[in-house]
Specification:
The structure is a homodimer.
Chain A: H1 8-14, H2 16-30, E1 33-34, H3 35-42, H4 46-58, E2 62-65, E3 79-82, E4 87-94, E5 98-105, E6 110-117, H5 125-141, E7 148-156, E8 159-160, E9 167-170, E10 175-178, H6 180-188, E11 195-198, H7 199-210, E12 219-224, E13 228-234, E14 237-238, H8 270-274, H9 276-282, H10 292-303, H11 307-331, E15 335-340, H12 342-360, H13 363-366, E16 370-373, H14 380-390, H15 397-411, H16 413-418
Parallel strand pairs in A: 4-7, 7-11, 12-15, 15-16
Antiparallel strand pairs in A: 1-3, 2-3, 4-5, 5-6, 8-9, 9-10, 12-13, 13-14
């Protein structure tokens, strides 16, 4: 009753663009990889891999070379790698404290970057889009001649409507229902849409693709700043929920009757208890201090023995542990990854976090869970945005490439870029 | 570049057992369904449906008939329905307060049932398996002559290791690492394994397949008794986590510094604040009262104006609302379903729950969520266990049927049953 093996020619014909995308994704995510390895990972025979690789090579997307220095028996399997300079994406990040734009090549290397501090006040849609579009056009103009932009992605610190990049709710910047994706696309003027995602969702995917938890099926990414965003991978996929608004770990209520006020209007939310403000206020710092540097100062002071700073870190650690224990009980993940300012907080408060896990997580659910700081550091969210931008290319490489090539010629954008 | 349509003969040959299973699943879950409807749902043409239906009819699993009374134009599409008396499963439920066994026919009808109160003390593996195996053999003996048992499933109020049915942690009965599935299979002596699942996981799947949330992609089922179990459907699938131990909503900490003691050894867990004991103790009831009837008495007394009962229901409702708000923020579900004793508590405390959702859930995540009591009532968990037992048949109908027929003949079980 099992499905018989299909003849390979059938596979090549029927699933060609699909398999081209899968092969390119392997090369993009894991770098130089041998044809033999590709054949094994994709469950295809070598002659099929040869045919697929030839198509991608002809399109200029990959190159092949003989691996150096092995000198083993027999003919070594050729290594396939992304070809530099052929295609790239633009990725943007609207974070609490800064605005960033990068150019990312196939293979994932960030090859160019612009960033600016985000003004704490007056950061309306116009101002943010203005800064980002200026950065984006600079990146586009200075890309190598002949290189093709195949996608644009953006990470935003708020709740994003899937499909059209509308910011439904962005408490840090005070945005409600702002058409961010459309506005940025128009201001860039490159004739391409901008795919927008929530920063912690993108961070989770990036950590699972390129960071601390490569290949894990169940992973939780916690991104701390003023608030705490969550990105949760369940069974290999981002938990989206019905509207794309799941993963709001930051507003999990953990201190309902005695909690600190939260930006959402409630009290005692996870992010109110462990966010930047709680850490700074508990340590007795003046209201004028904020941001990553201020957080690091408290942690450094705690290391040096400052009692108020130590007590603040200890309290934050206990609340962080409560929230982490809750999500471990709910998701039975293989790993919890701490990103944003939690990259600094977690190592300082690891004892408190582990103590809470030991008490609050059911034994069978804590048997194997790992706790890690972000493998991608402050790039986690923008790397996720870049992957969002690469997604169409990795679904249909030749189709997307042909579409962008003709669009570039038709619009004269190619000429403008080399001007 | 799109995948061309495959010739239909290819589909029938290659995916025959797969498609037979899918068709049988449609008939099993949605009852009598026309060939035309099956063709549309499965994306196959009518002649393929005809061929598949003929195979299932020949195997005795379905029957076809002309629908009555439509009188429209043209020839009416034949209706396919499960054939009664041909195959069935046995399903068991080890709940906090009782032990249940049922026989369930293809199509989902519960056609026979035995149940007994579970003793609060001394309910060790031997005793539980003894009672269930006795029930199971009775159900087997009294099944119609010629009917074939195609699977056995069990629901248990604790954490179950996937694959082998070991109860890793069952606080209500005090079980740790007990080989429940294997023991029940051996004691039944039917030559079949017993597939075991956590009661709330199975309840969630049953509610999504046959209950309040049919077809929903994101659904949360909360099963209350002494504790609160959770079953969470994410993107159409049960959230399992790395080891199958996810969904432990009951041990989400919501009252860390002032909480009631929990059976898990911690304090302030969701289930400690909203479980049966909290309701009864807050209402000032004596420790000798427990169980579903005692819960209903408090709720009835609250309805009649008893101030202590009213205050207890109000407090439970507030905590219930906090927990429900948390899972809505995390999962952005289409529906939250209240099962077990929460079927009684939620209607009495709906105002408190809705008030917490209004304050604590981010507006975009509460836009469309529905709150419902279980559509399957007290059968939710055992219906889930029956579906677990049907799963192999619905994957490979003819293979499973042939296997069971030959096993029954070889072991003489068929003869014993008709004796």
């Amino acid at each position: 009753m099992g499905a018989p093996q299909e003849p390979e020619v059938d596979v090549v014909t029927r699933d060609s663009s699909h398999n081209l995308g899968i092969l390119l994704r392997h090369v993009h995510l894991s770098g130089p990889v041998s044809r033999a390895e590709l054949a094994e990972r994709m469950g295809l025979n070598r002659s099929t891999i040869l045919a697929l690789t030839a198509e991608l090579t002809a399109a200029g997307l990959v190159s092949e070379q003989i691996p150096g220095g092995t000198g083993g028996r027999g003919r070594p399997s050729l290594v396939v790698r992304p070809r530099p300079g052929r295609v790239y994406v633009l990725a943007f990040d609207v974070a609490v404290d800064k605005l960033t734009a990068v150019r990312v090549e196939l293979g994932g290397a960030i090859v160019d970057r612009h960033e600016a501090p985000r003004p704490r006040a007056g950061a309306d849609l116009d101002l943010v889009v203005d800064v980002l579009a200026r950065f984006g056009r600079q990146l586009y103009r200075t890309a190598p001649a002949g290189a093709i932009c195949v996608g644009i992605g953006a990470s935003y610190c708020g709740m994003i409507r899937p499909g059209d990049g509308v910011v439904r709710y962005g408490p840090d910047l005070g945005w409600v229902d702002q058409a961010f994706g459309t506005a940025l696309s128009q201001r860039l003027g490159l004739g391409m849409p901008v795919a927008v995602g929530n920063e912690a969702h993108l961070g989770a995917q990036a950590e699972q693709q390129r960071g601390a938890g490569i290949g894990l099926q169940n992973l939780i990414y916690l991104h701390g700043d003023v608030g705490v965003g969550g990105g949760i991978i369940v069974g290999g996929k981002l938990l989206a929920g019905d509207g794309g608004y799941g993963c709001e770990v930051g507003h999990m209520m953990i201190n309902p009757y005695d909690g600190r006020p939260c930006l959402c209007g409630s009290r005692g939310c996870f992010e109110a208890e462990v966010g930047e403000r709680a850490l700074l206020q508990n340590a007795g710092r003046p209201d004028s201090e904020f941001g990553r540097d201020a957080v690091r100062t408290v942690i450094d002071d705690a290391d040096r023995g400052d009692p108020a700073a130590q007590e603040s870190v200890r309290r934050i650690g206990d609340w962080l542990g409560i929230g982490v224990a809750n999500v471990i009980n709910l998701f039975n993940p293989g790993m919890v990854v701490f990103g944003g300012m939690l990259r600094d907080v977690y190592p300082a408060a690891a004892a408190e976090v582990r103590a809470r896990i030991a008490v609050n997580v059911l034994p069978v659910a804590r048997e194997r869970v790992l706790l890690r700081t972000s493998g991608l550091g402050d790039n986690a969210t923008i790397v996720g945005a870049a992957e969002l931008a690469f997604a169409p290319l990795l679904t249909d490489p030749l189709g997307v490439l042909a579409g962008r090539e003709s669009a570039t010629v038709a619009s004269g954008l190619g000429a403008r870029r080399s001007a």
